[in-house]
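yo

u said u wanted the structure for the complex thing, so here. seqs first:
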Amino acid sequence: MEDDVKKVKKPGIVSPFKRVFLKGEKGRDKKAQEKATERRALHTFSLSQPDHRIDPDILLNDYIEKEVKYLGQLTSVPGYLNPSSRTEVLQLIDNARKSHQLAGQLTSEQDAVVSLSAYNIKLVWRDGEDIILRVPIHDIAAVSYIRDDSLHLVVIKTAQESGGSPCPSSCPDLNKSQTLSSLSESGAVLVEVCCLLVLAVDNKAAAEELCLLLSQVFQIVYTESTIDFLDRAIFDGATTPTRHLSLYSGKEWNRSVLFVKTFVKFQNFTCKHFADDSSSKVDVKEAFEEEGGTFPFQASVEAEGNSPTTSTPASPQTKTASEGELSTTAAELLQDYMTTLRTKLSSQEIQQFATLLHQYRNGSSIHEFCINLRQLYGDSRKFLLLGLRPFIPEKDSQHFENFLETIGVKDGRGIITDSFGRYRRTASSASDSTTNGNGAVGGSGDSAASDEGQEASEGDEWDRMITDISNDIEALGCSMDQEGVTP
Amino acid sequence: MTMNDMKNEAETAKLFSMALYSVMYPVFNQLEQVNLSAAQTLRAAFIKAEKENPGLTQSIVIKILEKKRLRINYNESLLRMAGDGVEEFMIDRQEPEFQELNERARTLKHILSTIPDEISDRVSFLQTIKDIASAIKELLDTVNSVFKKYQYQNRRVLEQQKKEFVKYSKSFSDTLKTFFKDGKVINVFDSANHLIHQTNMILQAFKTVV
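structre next:
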């Protein structure tokens, strides 16, 4: 009875300390509850069990969000860290937590959302949605799940952002005041470094789900890249130099053919998937398909090709396969190229492009050409620069490639680095004499048996092709003006 | 019969001769160790019969399999066997380019023949596809360099054969894209067989035309 009485809540004086304390606690609980109700719903989908399969289209054209706790990111971690070694990874994490590089206690303050798609993982704070970091898929080396008692950690090993220096093997933590030169002077052995992104999830199921989703992303990305690699290998091999020319000129023609195909490739690529990313996801099927129908400039190209004014090769038997074939191929490719220009550039821009190309051919530097084109295309269309690769002579190719890299435009993000490495442009001794169209090597244009004469005629042929294309571009610009077409 | 059906039939017909040279030729080679005369007679008979009735050899082989109640996938088995070299297609000319052509064709066929073993594991299959891509490129590069170096009267024939090869390479790529969506391995085997056949046809073209 007395207990019952005791249990009855009696109104009376409450200790001020208690009042404040309880009020504070209640306030915090209330705030936490309010926060929970204020938080938006996650963009998520149901996954088929037991392997958490998701429709690849969602990863390609959409995204999926999962709730996690963000403990932090460790940088300058030695790249040789074995992500499947529980001991190694936990040791790093424990040390980081001791030195407060990673969060110790898990609270709602670490609440975050990981957004996953075929392009990147993005981490934002749960409240406020401020972005924490974004990691492109090709920068992810490994994903690990570690259960440490009640803690379910998902650790993502990623590339260190560019600008980070290699770390001396003797000192895992990079001393930022040290420079590379001082490191090499000291004789330290430099090792590659990486980052560890440390997340925590509620339970094992959530951790496995996240890992399996990432695994599916890798599958998609690597599969797409592999097929793309196959398509490019077929395309590269399929382009035949149809004239019996020296290797030098053959390469020039191949580059021009490749230019147009690449142009169309990236048009399709951009339309289908990205707004501003130049990852190597390309669908080249359309680029391969021949486009039927007439094209206003086709006739002029064919006529040019059939004219008897082209240079005579040194050997009389080298009546080439086919200026007819060459012209047909050129016409098709030109058609693709023009179509792309019409969709990507305004008429004024097309004329500007033609002017810049003309200037480059007539002696302006590759540097100027690149800068002006970059300005013309702007950020949203800078990928179009990739398509110019085949037009760039060998002597300027290195500068061009470096330029592409500085502006963040590069096909093949190194997902299949070994394979792509086989097909990187290599300096060829035969191509060293490439000109940028500013006159051929050697003087006479006579059909002579001399090498110089042959090179001159081959250079003339190249110039003629470029001139044709430039003129057609200019004409396209004019015709678009007349039609009043807007892109 | 629609145009598509006729097209499929024509493409299937091209593959018929694979049964002869991939399946029967090795049998005849072994038989020669036992009875040379009989083996040569059989070989000649099959070649003639196949020429007159394309698909006959394949029908015979399939019937034998049925009779023996051997539950094997014909396309898969054909693909595995197709990696072996067929001497009849090897180019005899000793110049380095032609020997390289032989070697590159052999490499491509060998890699394609490993598809049945690799296709079930995504990671290793992707590596196989990369190897196939490299092999296709190298074969085409060698074909191109032969074109560049040598002058032929019948160049159009060779160009046409190369075009066919490229066409089937693209078809193989398309088949792979579909496979990664629907998981049907049989189509990949079939497409790989076509590509092997086209590889042999390139060798044959260079052997006979040059």
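Chain A has a mean pLDDT of 66. The beta strands of chain A are 64-78, 111-116, 120-125, 131-136, 140-148, 151-159, 167-168, 190-191, 193-201.
cya
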